[in-house]
Amino acid sequence: MQMESFYDVMRSQGVSRRSFLKFCSLTATSMGLGAGFVPQIAHALENQPRTPVIWLHGLECTCCSESFIRSAHPLAKDAILSMISLDYDDTIMAAAGHQAEAILDEITTKYKGNYIVAVEGNPPLNEDGMFCMPGGEPFVEKLKRVSKDASAIIAWGACASWGCVQAAKPNPTRATPVADVITDKPIIKVPGCPPIPEVMAAVITYMVTFGRIPPLDRQGRPKMFYGQRIHDKCYRRPHFDAGQFVEDWDDEGARKGYCLYKMGCKGPTTYNACSTVRWNDGVSFPIQSGHGCIGCSENGFWDKGSFYDRVVDINQFGIESNADKIGLTVAGAAGAAIVAHAAVSAIKSTALKRQDLKSLNDVQREETR
Amino acid sequence: MKPLKTYGFDNDIPAELGGRRTTAVYVYQAPVRIWHWLTAISVMVLAITGFFIGKPLPTLSGEASAHFLMGYIRFAHFAAAYVLAVGLIFRIYWAIVGNAYSRELFIVPVWDPQWWREFFYEVRWYMFMVRYPKKYVGHNPVGQFAMFCFFLCAVGMILSGFALYGEGLGEQSWAYRMFGWVISLVGGNSMTLHGLHRLGMWFTILFVMLHIYAAIREDIMSKQSMISTMVSGFRMFKS
């Protein structure tokens, strides 16, 4: 079966070859690739068939979709209409009900092994998955059914990647990350709450351009966007190194844009591209707006203590205890114990010495007698 | 009959007043002593700088270009960490080539009932339940156990520390390649590792407190030298 290429679709939409090549170089730039990759991208787009994408929604808030449709480089319009063939997305597709579900069956059989499943949200496993029932079917079963013949799976956002808020303690529905349910397919985690739109679009672009999944780090995230911490490229980093911190939300440091580390900024432990790509077409990102990073792209960020502390609570040792409280308590107790022990030692030792000397004197007296 | 193997000796009452003798045994070889004091200095630097990395000093005003306080604190932390790590590797090497006492930190004879008997004898000594401690050329069993705990703690601190250090150096760095797995081990969010690393700091502080107290106390009360031994290498036994 002949599948049309991206280039065919773009030309049929009235895009000139010149604009097409411009688009290729823009895509290369946005992915951090050199000029040499432009012909490669153009070649791929001219020759590779469009990849059908099925976009599933589980337990989620749709912030990933909201983010994705605001992508500026490349425009979501370009990504959806010309690069991929977004054949199923129950939130934004025109078809509904049985019509929509029929498309799902059609794609999974017609493009068996050649389509990508993009998952937004995650499946709850408790009560046989009854907590999430799109189209009258538990989401966990829909996910398994659709993923069976997929070539790869993209886990959008913190929900699909790690579990996010619905998986935070005590996780009543047992919301489970996609990677724990689908174990036999390559899974690309694009965490964030939501992920950066340009990052989402670029991951798709990479996959359809090169026909393979992007290089992933230890935790399955694309290295090109999750290879560095917010802290590493933060424009407030010089204030961190200098030792200039915001100590209060309304102090001089806050006005001057000092480092938000002391306000609990999670930039030093968060892998994402916010400090370079930024948000809303590069306008700003949380730290630039004066609030610390909450680490929304990190595993279990809801359960890692306050957003406003660096030395955060460790609940294993009781609610609201942290390393410093535990340490100070233990060190204080040890200090008191040492003082007490030393006092007892001194008293005992003096008493013993007196006894010993006495007994020795007795011995000497006995010997001389 | 084969004499029972014991670790310590002579927990009798002191000999008579007139006949006091002092015996000296060479215990800690020069590299062990140098390692001890280098580790002591580096642990002190690490704890102080580490504390202020987690909870930084009050903010500085003026231009960012005029200061590098956090940078220097972190530099001192990393430099001391290298000293600790390289020192520990050297110390493990010395356990292989050094004298018998140099192995006590790493090999605790927990399989030996006699060692346990003497361990509990020592515990009773610390709890004022026996009158005189046994004497040991090397470590007493409780001390040896504490040293082993510190060794494990130091390994944990080096693994977690270099994993966090690797995050700063970047994913391509040797530190991240070698130690990045530690972050995955604790669930992938390095906030957890930061917390554990800080708990390790407090454990080390606890160890240092007890270590110094026990050394001073034993020096005074157990008729064997402790502090001067780590300087000269010789253990003096007064009987």
Structure description:
Chain A folds into 3 domains: about 5-225, NADH:ubiquinone oxidoreductase-like, 20kDa subunit (Rossmann fold), CATH 3.40.50.700; about 230-310, Cytochrome-c3 Hydrogenase, Chain A, domain 2 (Irregular); about 330-369. Chain A has 15 helices and 5 strands. Chain A has helices at about 5-10, 15-30, 35-45, 65-70, 75-85, 95-110, 140-145, 155-160, 180, 195-210, 225, 235-240, 250-255, 275, 325-369, and strands at about 50-55, 85-90, 115-120, 150-155, 185-190. A 5-stranded parallel sheet of chain A has the order 2-1-3-4-5, with helices on both faces. Chain B has about 240 residues and is mainly alpha-helical. Chain B has a domain at about 95-240: Fumarate Reductase Cytochrome B subunit (Up-down Bundle). Chain B has helices spanning about 30-55, 70-95, 115-125, 140-170, 175-180, 180-185, 190-220, 230; strands at about 20-25, 235-239. Chain B is elongated, with a radius of gyration of 22 Å. Chain B starts with about 20 loop residues before the first strand and ends with a strand. The mean pLDDT of chain B is about 90. The chains are: A alpha/beta (about 375), B mainly alpha (about 240). Chains A and B meet through helix 12 and helix 15 of A and helix 2, helix 6 and helix 7 of B.
Question: What topology does this entry show?
Answer:
The complex is a heterodimer of chains A (369) and B (239).
Chain A: H1 6-12, H2 17-30, H3 37-47, E1 51-57, H4 63-68, H5 76-83, E2 84-89, H6 97-110, E3 115-120, H7 139-147, E4 150-156, H8 157-161, H9 178-181, E5 187-190, H10 197-210, H11 223-226, H12 237-242, H13 252-256, H14 274-277, H15 323-368
Chain B: E1 22-26, H1 30-54, H2 69-97, H3 113-126, H4 141-169, H5 174-179, H6 181-185, H7 190-221, H8 229-232, E2 234-238
Antiparallel strand pairs in B: 1-2
Helix pairs in contact in B: 1-2, 1-7, 2-4, 4-7
